[in-house]
Amino acid sequence: MLKDIEKDVFEITIAEIPFEKNTPREPYFILMPVPNITGDLHIGHGINLVLQDVICRRKLIEGKNVYFPPGADHAGIMGQYNAEKKLRSNNLNRTSLGKDEFIKYMHNESRMHIDNLLNEMRMIGLKANWSHSWFTHDTKRDEAVRWAFVELYKRDLIYREDNLVNWCPMCSSCVADMELTLTESMEQRHFINVESADGINASLMFIQPIMLLGAIGLGVTKSNAKFKKLVGKTFWLPILNKSVRVYEVQDEKRKFYNQNLRLIVPSYNSNDLFFAKKNNIVFNNIFDDCCSVSYDGNKYSGEEANRLIVNKLKSLNIGYKSEKFSQGRMHHALCGSAVYPLVKPQWYLKMHKMEPSAREICENNKTLFSDVSWRDRHIAVLNNIRDSSLPDKEKWWEGACVGVAQGYSSNKDWVISRQNWWGQPVPVWYCVKCGHTMVSTKNIYSCEICNAREVTPDSDVLDVWFSCALWPISVNPFGLRGHFVDIGVMGSDIFYFWVASSNMICNELYGQQAFKKAYTHGLLCDENGKKMSKSLGNVISLSNIINEYGAETLRVFVYKLMFNNSGAEWLKAGQSDIHSAHQFAVNLFDKLNKKRLNKVNSNRGKTNSILSHFQEAVNNRINCMKIGEAYNEICDFINSESFSDCSFSDEQYVELLKTIHPFHPFISNYIYASRLGGQICLSAKEFYSESQVID
Ligand SMILES: [Zn+2]
Ligand SMILES: [Zn+2]
Q1: pLDDT for 304-334, tens place per residue?
Q2: How far is the CA of 56 from the centre of ligand 1 (A)?
C-alpha cells in the first residue's frame, strides 16, 4: 500500500528545511500566499502548496539556501465576520466584549487556527521552514505595515479624503470595488415633469426616488441638444422642496441619461461628487451608517423610503411614470449584503502615481510570468488604473460593470482603510485641541504642535491586502538589499491583489520588483466547468484524498490537472481523476521499485546520456514554471522503452530518483532508503546537496 510507504518515510519527507542566515549558498525565497485563519485547508490550497513544494525541493537539490516559511493570514474583514458569527452563537457580540477584549479573543482564536493549518500542511507532505512560521498580524508584520504606511505618507502617496465608498451595512465597513460582485436585476427607472422658474417644461429621470433627497442640481449631458438651452436655469424639485440649477455634465454610457434631465447627486455618483467638490457645492449623504434614510422626519430603509416617495410623487400630478429596466446591483462578495454609496473620510493610496513603475517591471520582464497571458492581464490592470485616474472615467454604482476579477478597475485610488476592529490600525493620531494630524510608527501621547495631551488614534484598520503587498518585505530574511521574492505561486483569484500591489509598493519603497517570478494557476471546478459547491455535490475534498489515498495521489492529481489545463483560469476535474491519479502513483512506484533490481549496468555511457537528457528536460520545465509539463516528461520516460531497456548503476539510479524526488518525495525517499539495506528514514536527506545536511 502506497499509504503505508508514506507513513514509513513521513517524518524525513516533511523535515525542517535547514535555513542558514550566513552562508555562501545562494538564497532562494519562496513566498507562500498563506491561508486564512477562517477555515481548514481545501483542495485549492492543496494544489497551490504541492506546486510550491515541487519548486522548494528542486531548489534544495540545486544546493540553494531555500527559505519557505509556512504561515497564516489574519483575514481582516472576513476574520472578524467569522468570529462575530461564532460569538453570536454564544449569545455574545463584539460590542458586549469591548474592543480590547475582542482583539484578545481574536488573537487566541487565531493561534488555534494557525496550529491547525500548519498540521494540515504537514499532512500534505510539505517541506518547509517549520520553525519560522509566521502570522500576518504578528509583531514583525505589524511593524512593517506601520513603517510602510508612514513612509508612503511622507512621500505624499497616502492621503485622507472624503470620498464615495461602497458601504456594507452587514460588515459596518467600506469595501473596495474589487471585493464586490455584480448581479443584474430588474429595477425601475422613474420620470417626472419639472418646470423652470421661467415656465419651461422638461422631463427628469432618476433610478432611485431617494436620490431626490441628495440632489444638488440637474444635469444636461453634452450631447443632449434638446435640453442644452436649460443650462443655468433653475427648477423646483419636489421632495427636496428646493430650487436647483441646471449644469452641463459629461455624457453617460447609458443613453437614457442623455435624453432627459438627470439629478446630480454627489453622495450617489462619483462623477457628481467630483463635480460638487470642484464647484464647492455643499451636499449631504442619503444614507446613514446603518443604511437608513431620513425622510419626512422619520428614518426608513432605502426600499421603504423609495416606496413612500413614489406615492408622494404620484399624488402631485407632475406626470410621474416608471418603467422597468435591467440594472446592475453591487453586493459585498463576502457577506452577500447589497452595498450602499456613502461619502466618508477614508485613507487612499495613489495607485496612478505608482502605476508607471509597475508597468516598467512588466514591460521589461523584471517579473517573469508563468504564462504570457498573465503578463497581459497584469498590464490590463495597470491600464485600468491609468485610465481611471482621469476624473470623467470613473463610473461607480449606476450599472458600472466592474466585478471582482477586474481588480482595481474603477478605483481611482485604492481605499486602504477599513472600519473593522480586527487588523493593523492606521498609525495616525489627531489632536483634540488643535486638530493636528500625526502619522507615526510610534504611539503618540501628546500633540507635537500644541503639546495638548488629548490625542485620539484613528479608529480604522488597514485593508488586509495592504499588508499582503508588504510580505515580500516583512517576511524576507535575507535583508532588503538586492533580494526579494524568487517565486510566488498563486491562484488566479489573488493574482491582481498580490502581484500588482506588491510590485508597485516594493518598487516605490526599494526601487525593485517584489517578485522575480509569478507562477499563477487556475482555480478548480468540476468536469463541466461548474464551480464546486456542497449543494451541487461536486466538491473534491482535500482531506478525503489524503486520508483515503495519501499525499502522493494528491500530487499526481495536481500535476495532471496542471498539464491538462495549462495556463487556463479554470482547472476541470472530477472524482474519477482522483482514482486514476491513485492508480498512476501506484504504477509509478511499482515501476521504479522493480527497476532498482537491475543492478548491472553494461552500458554506462548510454545510460548517462539518456539520464542527462531526461534531467535537463524536467528541470528546464520546472524553471519555466511548467510543472505539469515537467511531470509529463517523467511519465513519458518511465513508460518509455528506453527506460525499460536501460540498466542503471547505483549512482545513476540515485540521479534518477533525485530528478523524480521533487514530484514524488515519499516514493523516492522510500526507495532510496530501502535500497540501502532497509534502513528506512536514515539517508533520504542525501537527495539535497551535502552542505545542507544538518543533524
Ligand atoms: Zn459585508
Ligand atoms: Zn494640538
Answers
A1: 999 999 999 999 999 999 999 887 778 888 8
A2: 37
